[in-house]
């Protein structure tokens, strides 16, 4: 049997060493966090003693998988050199910090093709720009633990379809893989409300990307309607998706030889507590 773990996006609030305890207190088995201020600014190295404390705490609470979410400003499709270079630097920084803190993966969005809109074959240009960025991040490395997350697709956002994510993951097999976000996929037009739809969607992930590349799922109910392209996270059962979606996902992975982490990205502690309880009951 594979191992399915549930957790949530946690905020370190400047105290990295307290994260595992904070996560475990609500019932989390894994977690995601920003390794630095997600809005930008100077990145400070973690102090050695705090890292040591972090490792001890993670072990104590039996947490072995945690994920770094890249900052908000990432845009690998930007034509502005400062933004483009800044995005590459920020992702490289997070990959370095991943090594320091022994995280599993860095998760990122690709960005927006808005700078290319109006130009002929603008999507081709945007794809080429993203490829240029990814190439710089990868360099000569054979394995880059970076996951590309599906986006809700507002405006000219890149990576809002399985085909698009699949394109980059095939072009750069060095990359770690795919992060599915249920709210983003739904807002992009993938209907996941019925169990049969969840199953056929995950089969489609297998076809377009390869299930073995799916390393992380963001479990969020959706405030936006199907294909609305509106990115709003809701607690499980409180959005347009409903509980069947989440039970379906857990059922799909149950009994498979597959290790996967699932992360909630919703704000309230009470809500997270309830959602984690629910997911654990689905898992049985
Ligand atoms: Zn997400």
**Helical/strand content category:** alpha/beta
> What gross morphology would you assign?
globular
- Going by CATH, the architecture would be Alpha-Beta Barrel
Question: How many whole angstroms does the radius of gyration measure?
Answer: 18 Å
Main sheet characteristics: 8 strands, parallel, barrel
CATH topology term:
TIM Barrel
Distinct ligands: zinc ion
Brief description of this entry?
The protein is α/β, with parallel strands linked by helices and 284 residues long. It contains nine helices and ten strands. The chain has an eight-stranded parallel barrel with strand order 1-2-3-4-5-6-7-10, surrounded by four helices. It has a two-stranded antiparallel sheet with strand order 8-9.
Question: What does this 3D model show about the protein?
Answer:
The chain is α/β, with parallel strands linked by helices and 284 residues long. It has a single domain (4-283), classed as Alpha-Beta Barrel (TIM Barrel), CATH 3.20.20.150. 40% of the residues lie in helices and 16% in strands. The protein has nine helices and ten strands. It has helices at residues 19-26, 48-60, 81-101, 122-138, 162-171, 182-187, 195-208, 243-253, 269-283, and strands at 4-9, 30-34, 66-69, 105-108, 144-149, 175-181, 214-218, 221-222, 233-234, 260-264. The strands form two sheets. The protein has an eight-stranded parallel barrel, surrounded by four helices. A two-stranded antiparallel sheet has the order 8-9. Helix 3 (81-101) runs parallel beside helix 4 (122-138) and helix 7 packs across helix 8. The longest helix has 21 residues, at 81-101. It starts with a strand and ends with a helix. The structure holds zinc ion. Residues 149, 181, 218, 265 line the site of zinc ion (ZN).
């Amino acid at each position: 049997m594979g191992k399915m773990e549930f957790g949530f996006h946690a905020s370190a609030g400047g105290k990295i060493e307290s994260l595992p305890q904070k996560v475990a207190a609500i019932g989390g088995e894994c977690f995601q966090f920003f390794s630095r201020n997600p809005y930008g600014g100077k990145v400070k190295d973690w102090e050695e003693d705090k890292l040591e404390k972090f490792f001890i705490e993670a072990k104590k609470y039996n947490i072995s998988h945690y994920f770094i979410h890249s900052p908000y400003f990432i845009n690998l499709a930007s034509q502005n050199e400062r933004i483009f270079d800044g995005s590459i630097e920020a992702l490289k920084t997070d990959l370095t910090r991943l090594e320091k803190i022994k995280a599993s993966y860095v998760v990122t969005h690709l960005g927006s093709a808005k700078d290319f809109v109006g130009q002929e074959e603008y999507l081709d240009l945007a794809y080429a720009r993203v490829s240029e960025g990814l190439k710089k991040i990868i360099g000569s490395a054979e394995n880059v633990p970076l996951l590309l997350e599906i986006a809700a697709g507002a405006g000219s956002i890149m990576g809002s379809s399985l085909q698009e994510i699949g394109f980059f993951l095939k072009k750069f097999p060095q990359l770690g893989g795919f992060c599915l976000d249920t709210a983003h996929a739904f807002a992009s037009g993938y209907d996941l409300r019925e169990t049969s739809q969840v199953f056929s969607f995950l089969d489609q992930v297998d076809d377009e990307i390869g299930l073995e590349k799916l390393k992380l799922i963001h479990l969020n109910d959706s405030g936006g309607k199907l294909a609305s392209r509106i990115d709003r996270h809701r607690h499980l059962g409180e959005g347009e998706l409903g509980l069947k979606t989440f039970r379906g996902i857990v059922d799909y992975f149950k009994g498979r030889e597959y290790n996967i982490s699932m992360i909630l990205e919703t704000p309230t502690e009470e809500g997270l507590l309830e959602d984690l309880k629910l997911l654990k009951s689905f898992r049985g």
